[in-house]
Amino acid sequence: MYNEIGHNLLLRCLMMNFLMDPNVAYVLLVGGLLLAVLAMFGPGTGVLELGALAMLVVAGFSISNFTINFWALLILVLGIFPFLLAVRRSRQYIFLAIALAALVVGTVFIISPTETSPGINPVLAIFVSVIVTVFLWMVGRRSLEALVLPVKSLARLVGASGEAHTDVFAEGSVYVDGEEWSARSQVFIPSGSPVRVTGREGLTLLVEPLNAS
What we know:
The protein is of the alpha+beta class. The chain has helices spanning 2-19, 22-41, 47-63, 70-78, 80-89, 93-109, 122-147, 151-155, and strands spanning 161-164, 173-176, 179-185, 194-201, 204-209.
């Protein structure tokens, strides 16, 4: 019994030491934000959303143990707005670039170095920032290009039939015309059911069961 208690205490100590590393906090924060962005582009299963939430909660706990640069946190929060503008309204690459810059600056400088904490390793910060920026830029550009497809190209999807890849209601995903799309429906549609496209809002298809009257 005492050995088990000692083992559990050792594991907790190791976990606490692990989370007290600013580099770990930084990676967790970037990973959580990356999953959150990907969840916006491809909702449906809930896995990305849950993963983002879990990583951000752990990252928040870890970061709370350090001195925070609130100006960097403010930049990180404000970076959400140009990202939303790029995706939902203006669809211009300049807003996507501003959002990515805010994400990089906010995450890299959110933890302030002190006498007891060296801050984030510069090499790690550069490596992670480059990888995340290139990846999100590619994903973002592809999504924005899909948003500005010609109207005739979008209209061809209305009336097309396909199959639900996940359960579809408030959100989900369907396979239509050789592509997978985010979708939602006014009624619950089980995974694997045939569907018909009734409309489209941005990157989200509005669908109904194929056998609906």
